[in-house]
Amino acid sequence: MKRIKIIFLILMTFFLSGCIKYEYDMSIKEDKSITINLIDAFEIGADLGDDYEIPSKEKYEELGYEVKNYDDGKYQGLQLSKTYDSVDQISSSDCGTVDLSTIIDQDTAKLVLFKSEKKDTVTTYTADFIFDLTNSTSDGEKEHSGEIVGMSNEEPTIDDMIFKYSITFPNNVQVVSENATEKTNDNHTLTWNLTYGKRENIKFVFRIDDKEVTALIDEEEESDENTPKDEDSDDTSDQNPTDEEEKGEEKMNVHFEKLVLVVTILAVLAIIISLIVLKTLINKRIKKIKRDTFDHQKPPSTLRK
To answer: Tens digit of pLDDT for each residue in 141-151?
Structure first.
């Protein structure tokens, strides 16, 4: 059976005179979750030919990928990603050799990449991948030739092509064996730099102890419990107030009632004082009026004396 993805890569290679970028990356977390990232891009400004049609984002979204446009200034295309809660979701005890060049066209819900063997709490995962960058079909016949209109008889420039596969492991994963061409990040990241025209073999074996994973998850959950909870994580306490909260509300009500009483007393005292002051002023005014009236009523002779 012809490999659909290989045909796409070979066509792209001839059209672009070798300027393509195909990077496949996997990253496993300490909780066994795994994220797959794939960059499928071509050189900006390259002539793809009239018959070439760039795959649509909708096609890969239907396969279960999260799809974004990719542009690093030199290459542009698509970036696909898919995260699984556990590496076990893409593992099987009867998994054989997997052709990575065809993964992009498979339904992510049915994807199986690793062979798994479990003993007690330890699971051993074996990756037996191939990445076929030859320009031939599975039966050995040449897929393309210079006779096809729009293609060149010249071989692509290998230096302008980027084919790469890498995988990153956390500290709690033991890598048993591998044939990587490059190791970085304290040997936690394995990389295979692939070559056009070759059928590359990618092999590695790693182990995960579920007991360690469970202990790690328990520690994280315990840490979360000790962290002050916000409104979203404490729905129960919102719906059922505690005795302390009820006592606090009662104290607030008592303080409020006392405050109202004090304010009322002060207001009454202010009114009383105002009345006393007013009464004093009125009395003084009355005495002044009486004195003036008495003075006017005295005889003139008395006034002259």
So the answer is: 434 333 333 33
